[in-house]
Amino acid sequence: MTIRVVLADDQALVRAGFRLLLDTEDGFEVAGEASDGEQAVAQAVEHRPDIVVMDIRMPGTDGLEATRRITSHPDLTGVKVLVLTTFDVDEYVYEALRAGASGFLLKDTEPVELLHALRVVAAGEALLAPTVTRRLIAEIVGRPEHRRIDTSAVQEVTEREREVLALVAGGLSNDEIAAHLVISTATARTHVSRIMTKIGARDRAQLVVLAYESGLVTPRRGSH
């Protein structure tokens, strides 16, 4: 399967570097480029890529607003957003995840890690969660003002699903969850899908955000 990507960054040099990397790697195709959020949304609508690689800080419409528009667009349900940032602790990153982004990477990420991240996000198999992501979510969502989820949905989550959700929040894949709970991968996948439906999560990244916001998973202070 070829993973089709739109590159959104206000720096032409950054886009050129990413394009060169993807053009020389089998299994990837650069479907379009954008220098601001408005163009990113337009490119997503025009090309329907698998992933939009989105810079957060761009002039005009920034990456956060563009992410929100793409993930809420009725015709773009299959398009995922991978956020790139120069800041490893940035509240905008959390907001992008909450808006529906599938994860984020730092711009100084090694090329092989970027390619791996794109494959993971395209597959939708696991949350792209380096330790800094979990720390970021735990620190910000732990603040009372960020508890914005409808708690009535939480009451429908079973005890077993809470166990599964805690493991998802820890960054485990379906295979790892299955091994931990001694169940089949198919059963783990079914649990995750049901939880996402119950609490209204678009994908696993948003599922983790909602897990923290709902109190179903408690942030551990000082964890890395």
UniProtKB/TrEMBL annotation:
Residues 4-122 form the Response regulatory domain. PROSITE patterns: HTH_LUXR_2 (PS50043), RESPONSE_REGULATORY (PS50110). The keyword Transcription applies. One of its GO terms (biological process) is phosphorelay signal transduction system. It holds the Pfam family Response_reg. One of its GO terms (molecular function) is DNA binding. Signal peptide: none annotated. Gene3D superfamilies: 3.40.50.2300. The keyword rRNA-binding does not apply. Keywords: DNA-binding, Phosphoprotein, Transcription, Transcription regulation. The modification 4-aspartylphosphate is found at D55. Residues 150-215 form the HTH luxR-type domain. This is LuxR family two component transcriptional regulator. It comes from Amycolatopsis echigonensis.
